[in-house]
Amino acid sequence: MSTTMSTALVTGITIAIAIYGSLHLLLHATQDAREPPPVPTSIPFISSMIGLSKKKSKYYTELRDKHNLPIYTIRLPGARLYVVNSISLIPSVQRQYKVFAFPPLEAKLAMSVCGSSKTANDILNTNSNGDEGFWGYSITHYKRIHAPLSPGPGLDAMNRVMAQKVAASLDRLKTSKVVKLFDFIRHEITLATTDSVYGPQNPFQDPAIIDAFWKFQLGIMILLMELFPSILARESLEAREFMAKRFLQYFKEGGHNKGSALIKARYDHSVEHKVPVEDIARFEVGGAIGILTNTSPASFWLVYHLYSNSVVLEDCRQELAHVISDETTTTEDGEEVKVRTIDMSQVKASCPVMLSTLQEVLRLHTIGISTRLVMEDHMLDNKFLLKKGGTVMIPGPVQHTSTSAWGPDVEEFNHRRFLPKEKRHNPIAFRGFGGGTTLCPGRHFASTEILAFTAMLILRFEIAPVDGKWKHLTTYKAGLWEVTPVPDDDIEVNISPRAGVDTNVRWRILVTDSDKAMPLSAEDVESTKL
Asked: According to the annotation, is 114 in a ligand binding site?
């Protein structure tokens, strides 16, 4: 080895050691002893960044298992993440919703994802955390959309449109058909959902808009990180612009006036805060993320677990058989038609196994992380200092895979786990819809849609893999922003009418008026006690 090469090697090693030592010094110099302990890493700041990039949500469960801390700090370049493991700390975080705030974060994310103008961004950022009172776009937005999504007339109307679309679509499946299961479900759910929200002028009735949305979705993580999106997410940006133009046309033509109470509330809220109509259209591109990205994969995983396990399928079919009714009606042409009705109110009230199966699917498959910004220094539970500017994270998978919360069979799919007569779990440990002020406002609409679609499917059809075997499906490609990940690979199946089920029967999904909420979250469980 030449002297020059030896010198270069020594110099390189010296620089590496110096950088390594400097990072350790920086970590200890900037970490308060009262803060949650930082997780040990081989290279401060860098190792955690690599771990999150590679392992995503699994990184949090690995750190929990390795260190067993109630709360800890992950230090990233320019950022502090306070990750909550202990279920006892979650209510403390959720109660302090002004100190640990979501609206300012939501405003920032909306700006990054939607590409809104400076005028709209200023409106989003004005009093975003309500420090000057309960006014301003961001702080009042959740309350404005909560009413049409809560049990009541607005939600019932959306559910009825959804039910009609689902029933009509499945009526067209008269003979056996080979499909890719996820693509099939995503298509059905997308049309039913968007018709129920946007009304007869639904932009998603154009297949080009559907294609654009899924292209847009692929680049969301890059948009959130603002990581050279014009280079790394060019197709997503083009898709976003295409969708924004179509939504602008939709609003200018008054399409929202014929839509649901939800789209009217979103539009009116923006108008009242003087958001330009061009930005209302851009915000709706972001709004489509909320109504589409979780319902399709959740429906897929429910169908997957039902048909891949004959015991689960039979249990749910037997339960549903008790809530269907038959009647004969006469058409305008004088033809007698047999109508079979599924009453969704009865499904929600009298099919606990079906509901438990859905909740178990969400426990096993959702990977959402409740995230909040620390607005001021705060001693959490009088024990842990959380510094202003940090980010509090409550990873759903940490709670969903907790042996102390769910028992030794936590890794297994147990479709009866959520039955009232089974061993009671702490409802806070179920994070399928988030919790606190970030609790998903659309959970009742989404759950009703998933249950209606799946109930209609399992009562009428058999589904079997073309190759004869249900394969294990992975979700390694899921993004950090996703709540319910899609499978890495689709599965080709044959859908055929069930033996003994009359294909000439006309099926109907009945949605009656209801002001009762399904017990889907800790907050729902608590409200049913009142």
From this structure: no
